[in-house]
Amino acid sequence: MFSDQFAKLWLSMQSDYQAYMERELAPDLTEVQLYTLELILSMVKAKPSDLIAHLEISPAAISTLVDRMEKNELLIRERDEHDRRIVWLQVTEKGRNAYELGIEIRRRYFASRLDALSEHNQKLLCYLMGKIAPDSQLADPPRRVN
Predict the structure, then answer these.
(1) pTM, entire model
(2) How confident is the model over 72-94, as pLDDT tens digits?
(3) 90 vs 88: CA distance, rounded Å
(4) pLDDT at residue 134, as a whole number
(5) Residue 128, number of CB atoms within 10 A of its CB
(6) Where in the numbering of this chain does the HTH marR-type domain appear (predicted)?
(7) Which of 15, 61, 91, 136 has its Cβ near the most Cβ atoms within 10 Å?
(8) In angstroms, rounded to a whole number, what is the distance separating the alpha carbons of residues 26 and 101?
């Protein structure tokens, strides 16, 4: 079995990725904040409670995260006009700019790693990772590259 070799490679890549993202996003954004902005922007409307399942952290930790992001002007809380108990999260212009920069930083990291592979092998790697990823619907079948 290759599980030990895979684990070492995975953990090495994960550690390298986290160090890169921390270094490149600092001081304005964290990786969790980038992912949070990505989640909010992908939803039509988002409440803090909508983030719990995706971030796998406690409601108290969500509140702390949202507080920090609001303090840094990455998002705002907005009361629902029909039910004042509901709070919606809106990404600010500053938050959208930080998100776009963060996505570009992430894209550069993965592009630099994938450059070692042919286009065909990049597609194959994505396909194979999709087979073992928790959400296997993310992988598209590989297409032959001429």
Answers:
(1) 0.84
(2) 999 999 999 999 999 999 999 99
(3) 6
(4) 85
(5) 12
(6) 1-134
(7) 91
(8) 12
Please report, rounded to a whole number, the percentage of residues in the chain having pLDDT higher than 90: 84
Reported as a single tens digit per residue, the pLDDT across 30-58 is 999 999 999 999 998 899 999 998 998 99
All structural domains of the chain: 9-115 (1.10.10.10), 117-146 (no CATH)
Q: Which residues contact 72 (CB under 8 A, 6 or more apart)?
A: 28, 94
Q: Which long-range contacts (CB under 8 A, 24 or more apart) does 38-43 make?
A: 38/99, 38/103, 40/75, 40/89, 40/90, 40/91, 41/91, 41/96, 41/99
Structure tokens given for 91 = 């990404």
Tokens 């108990």 -> residue: 85
Q: Are 87 and 75 in contact (CB under 8 A)?
A: no
- With beta carbons less than 8 A apart as the criterion, state whether 92 and 78 touch: no
Peptide bond into 59 cis (omega under 30): no
Tell me the one-letter amino acid at 45.
Answer: K
